[in-house]
């Protein structure tokens, strides 16, 4: 994904790690609080400092991508891949996953957050997802009062706790969620092993 991204925007805290892996982003966005002096001087032409503190650097970078797409004449819905969003802490991870629903709802984009094991996709209402047999699927209900499923091993219902919709499984090459609100779907890259 990094090699084929038409626009690669990095939060300031991740710039050093990305550059250390031999990848130069098109832009580095954030409040600048975690940028080493060496990055600040060598890559100053790529750095976009946003000083407001109402949002985190991930949201600042997302807004930068949206503004760039609008200036380029791109039409909605804009699809953005999010990589390396754990912040190396569990609270950052949970917060950044939760932001995907906010970006979908408020920014009108399709954000997909990729992890080492799978990916999170926010959705609203009825939505079908490409899948494969034995793919592990988790559903995190955000605001749905009614929620059902087709194509999953266990029928979905309007979960009231985050853990309730986890560890389901696709039985075919797609599954569909019917809901009257928002939810997040997690899908694994690999099928569950027989056993």
Q: What attributes does this structure have?
A:
alpha/beta, Rossmann fold, Jelly Rolls, 2 domains, six-stranded mixed beta sheet, 4 helices
Helix run count: 4
Uncertain parts: none
User: Which CATH class of the largest domain applies here?
Assistant: Alpha Beta
Strand order of the largest sheet: 4-5-6-12-8-10
Overall mean pLDDT? 93
The backbone outline, from C-alpha atoms, is elongated
What proportion of the residues form beta strands (DSSP E)? 25-35%
**Largest β-sheet summary:** 6 strands, mixed
What is this entry, summarized?
With 195 residues, this protein is an alpha/beta fold.
Question: How would you describe this structure to a colleague?
Answer:
The structure is a single chain. By secondary structure, this protein is of the alpha/beta class. It has two domains: 9-116, Rossmann fold (3-Layer(aba) Sandwich), CATH 3.40.50.10240; 120-191, Sandwich (Jelly Rolls), CATH 2.60.120.320. The protein has helices at 15-20, 37-42, 57-71, 90-106, and strands spanning 9-11, 27-30, 47-49, 78-82, 109-114, 118-124, 127-130, 135-141, 147-150, 168-169, 174-179, 182-191. The strands form three sheets. Strands 4-5-6-12-8-10 form a six-stranded mixed β-sheet. Strands 1-2-3 form a three-stranded parallel β-sheet, covered by helices on one side. A hairpin with a 3-residue loop joins strand 5 (109-114) and strand 6. The longest helix is centred in the middle third of the chain and has 17 residues, at 90-106. It starts with 8 loop residues before the first strand and ends with a strand.
């Amino acid at each position: 994904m990094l090699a084929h991204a038409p626009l690669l925007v990095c939060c300031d805290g991740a710039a050093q790690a990305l550059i250390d892996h031999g990848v130069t982003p098109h832009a580095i966005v954030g409040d600048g609080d975690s940028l080493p002096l060496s990055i600040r001087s060598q890559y100053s032409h790529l750095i976009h400092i946003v000083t407001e503190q109402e949002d985190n650097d991930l949201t600042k970078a997302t807004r930068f991508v949206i503004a760039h797409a609008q200036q380029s004449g791109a039409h909605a819905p804009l699809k953005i891949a999010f990589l390396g969003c754990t912040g190396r802490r569990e609270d950052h991870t949970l917060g950044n996953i939760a932001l995907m629903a906010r970006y979908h709802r408020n920014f009108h984009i399709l954000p997909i957050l990729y992890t080492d094991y799978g990916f999170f996709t926010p959705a609203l209402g009825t939505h079908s997802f490409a899948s494969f047999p034995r793919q592990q699927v988790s559903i995190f209900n955000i605001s749905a009062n009614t929620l059902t499923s087709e194509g999953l091993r266990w029928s979905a219902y309007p979960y009231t706790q985050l853990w309730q919709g986890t560890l389901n499984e696709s039985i075919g090459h797609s599954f569909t969620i019917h809901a009257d609100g928002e939810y997040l779907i997690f899908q694994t890259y690999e099928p569950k092993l027989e056993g």
